[in-house]
Write a structure and sequence with these properties.
alpha+beta; 4-stranded antiparallel β-sheet; 4-stranded mixed β-sheet
């Protein structure tokens, strides 16, 4: 379908390298395209759907987005309210999605919706939804504290009709498909943060080495030295966990636990590294002139 036929470890190598970009919105947008909106389609979609949506997405000719979170259902995916009711050879979609990365400019959405009244984990399906259909309303681009270059949208659906052939895999399997899809998303997120954290630590080392306080460099204080060494060690341990998880995933193992651990640690470490390093920059850390304050946001 136009890809290079490489295994998932190559995705992670690219993601890690993208972490050298001093702008989190770019790796995020590429990640949605490559590893968040497309894995389920790649694994479970029909040949026709892959030709229609996957081929141009891989080629970069169209933008994809992922419609999962809602105003009342973020981490609680099973509690989404958006419905896709089967009527003849179509699904009629009503509801809304929140925090949709690339949603303002997307050409199609991988949409999770309730397709029946059954049990919460068995009543959902994934659909390929063209974003130019009547009844789709992009309400706004959300103004955020960080990731400000990232296009994050709130979207509403009002009697949107999509062909039933746009169903990914089997009806009622959407929750399971999405949980599998989340594994690649989590690992991508972890990979993109590594180089960023290393950059923050190295810039802080360089700054504290030349910044003088009480006639000696800030770095000369053991408390500062020890803290930076500890943070650098934590980042390297996170990388090891990521690599182990990816290796297991490529071999076909269920990595739900390890991927979740890695994401948890990456999120906490992102806050810990930026906050700790910011303290060593003094007043300069509170300005927009230094990289550490941007990463802190």
């Amino acid at each position: 379908y136009g890809g290079m036929g490489l295994d998932f470890s190559y995705n992670i190598a690219v993601a890690e390298e993208l972490g050298n970009i001093h702008c989190g919105g770019i790796p995020m947008a590429i990640g949605v395209q490559a590893g968040m909106a497309t894995p389920a389609l790649t694994r479970f979609g029909s040949d026709e759907l892959k030709k229609q949506f996957l081929v141009p997405t891989i080629a970069g000719d169209v933008v994809a987005c992922l419609g999962i979170s809602e105003a009342g259902a973020g981490s609680d995916v099973a509690n989404i309210k958006t419905t896709a009711v089967r009527k003849g050879d179509e699904y009629v979609i009503n509801g809304g999605k929140m925090w949709t990365t690339s949603g303002c400019q997307a050409d199609w959405m991988c949409l999770l919706a309730n397709t029946s009244e059954g049990p919460l984990h068995q009543n959902k399906s994934l659909l390929c939804l063209p974003m130019n259909l009547p009844g789709i309303h992009v309400a706004k681009k959300i103004d955020k504290l960080g990731m400000r270059s990232s296009d994050t949208a709130q979207i509403f659906f009002e009697d949107v009709r999509v062909p039933s052939k746009n169903l990914i895999g089997e009806e009622g399997k959407g929750f399971t498909y999405q949980m599998l899809q989340f594994q690649e998303e989590r690992l991508w997120a972890v990979a993109t943060v590594l180089a960023t954290l290393e950059t923050i630590i190295q810039e802080t080392i360089d700054y504290t080495r030349q910044r003088k306080v009480f006639d000696q460099s800030v770095l000369h204080n053991q408390a500062v030295h020890f803290r930076l060494a500890e943070l650098a060690t934590e980042v390297e341990l996170l990388r090891s966990l990521l690599y182990r998880t990816v290796a297991l995933y490529v071999e076909g193992n269920d990595v739900t636990k390890f991927a979740s651990m890695a994401k948890l640690k990456a999120g906490r470490l992102a806050r810990e590294v930026t906050d700790s390093c910011l303290q060593f920059w003094g007043g300069m850390g509170f300005t927009s002139e230094v990289l550490v304050s941007r990463f802190y946001r």
